[in-house]
Amino acid sequence: MFSTLYQEKHSSNFSFKVCILFFILGSLYTLCFAPFNFFLLAPMVMVPLFYLCLKYKPKQTAIYLFFFGLGHFLSGLYWVYISVHIFGGAPVWAAILLMFALVILMSSYFLIAGFIISYLCRHKKKYIIIIGPSVWILIEWIRGWAFSGFPWLTSGYSQIDSFLISFAPLLGVYGVSWILLFSSSSFLYFFMKKQKSIASLSLIFPYILGYLILPIDWTSSFGNSMPVEIIQGGVAQDQKWKREQLQKTMEIYRKATYESEDNTLIIWPEVAIPASTVYLKDYFQSMQEHLSDNNKTLAIGALETIHNMEGSYNSFLYFNGTDTQHYRKRHLVPFGEYFPVPDFLREWMEMNNLPSFDLMRGEKHQSLIKYNDEINIAAAICYEIAFGSELLHAFPKANLLINVSNDAWFGDSIAPHQHLQITRMRAIETGRPIIRATNNGISAFINHKGKVVKKSGQFNYEILQHSVYPRKGSTLYVALGDTPVLLLSSLLILYVIRKKLLISK
């Protein structure tokens, strides 16, 4: 690879050969993430990327990194087509168009990162040590909130099973990304300076430090364990919303709930029963009576419709006897739960039988779910679990987190595994156990260290039981969020910009 880059760098012309090379490299980068988890591949992939930034002009670098992004996101996000067409009901052309639009948008962030890194470092190679990781994670962070945000496949997730994950309770997923990239950029610089011993040390030292701090518990358990049961209904997505399936689905969850042990917290997945709560009053009334008589607690995902209001919420409902609490999804999925399009386009979509229904957005600040006087529960619905900073308002007051999801939308793809990987990161960042209930897998119990204690298979009915210990205390990430990493990166970039301006004078 490096010989190819060396030969091509002397040409100022666009090289299709280099484009193909980095497209393949981007595809290989997907192997660093779930379900493949080749985490040691990540620093090796980043080295030629940073080499590219040092050896080519900014415009060329930007184009080549764009092709890297195309390879990465096409291989890592192909499941968008499955969700939109096979299960979303959109025509083939619309699904392909939406998938490629997302891939191109995501790849454009790499284009921007490549241009900036190359511009700032090309004539001062030593700056790559700090500029490479700083620019990259700032672009990742922007990708996580711009246009509603899509923080999928953030670099730090690739290290969920490496020693670098020890830094997540301190600095969050972007901090893990920064340290990963810093090790690669440092290795490259010192290797190019023929200081191979320093290069090797810079690559392995973060992993050694991560190993040393791995045993530290940043939070502590308290009180008695909570017996919890996840009911994974196993209803296929292409059957779930059929009218003839409704009663069968209701019976699946009723029967499993009735057969569960007393004093148990029972959890159903996102929109477990495919109908509005308006039409399920009697069903939930009988369920509440059973819960009250048997000292059980039920937490479910539901399509909640409020009387005298037009629209519905994707909600998390909590039934404790006669008491009902709720959390309403705040971060909706664009083109899935709402459609950010003008009225004329919405009318056209309706005329062509394309999905165009908008769910209502939950309030930004909502109360935690009270399990009892001592234990508070935070809830995240599906896609929300990918936005770590948006969950921080619940901590340290929340003692555990429940994530309900319907990953059946992804079919038999890599997406459910990626989603589980993201959820594990939230457990590590907050130092809290997470209970994850899905319609068709992968449901799981995750401890405060991000370890999957117990998980279900996919595409089947399954009941998972486990005793969960609530935790208290605060990690550094809970206290400060992404601010330290973002501030450090911004200051380092400004420092280099200032140096370049002084030199130019």
Task: Characterise the protein shown here.
By secondary structure, the chain is of the alpha/beta class. The protein folds into 2 domains: 2-217 and 483-504, no CATH class; 220-474, 4-Layer Sandwich (Nitrilase/N-carbamoyl-D-aminoacid amidohydrolase). The protein is built from 17 helices and 14 strands. It has helices at residues 2-8, 16-29, 41-55, 58-76, 79-87, 92-121, 128-143, 168-192, 196-213, 237-240, 246-259, 281-294, 343-351, 388-391, 415-430, 476-480, 483-504; strands at 220-221, 226-232, 265-267, 297-305, 312-320, 323-328, 369-370, 376-381, 400-405, 434-438, 444-446, 452-455, 462-468, 471-472. A 6-stranded mixed beta sheet has the order 6-5-4-3-2-13. A 6-stranded mixed beta sheet has the order 7-8-9-10-11-12, with helices on one face. Helix 12 links the parallel strand 3 and strand 4 (297-305). Helix 3 crosses helix 8, helix 6 packs antiparallel against helix 7 and helix 7 crosses helix 8 (168-192).
Summarize the structure.
The protein contains 17 helices and 14 strands. The chain has 505 residues and is of the alpha/beta class. The two termini are 37 Å apart.
- As a percent range, the share of helical residues equals 40-55%
CATH classification, class level of the largest domain:
Alpha Beta
How is the main sheet built? Answer: 6 strands, mixed
Mean pLDDT: 92
What distance lies between the first and last C-alpha atoms, to the nearest angstrom? 37 Å
What is the fold-level CATH name, i.e. the topology of the largest domain?
Nitrilase/N-carbamoyl-D-aminoacid amidohydrolase
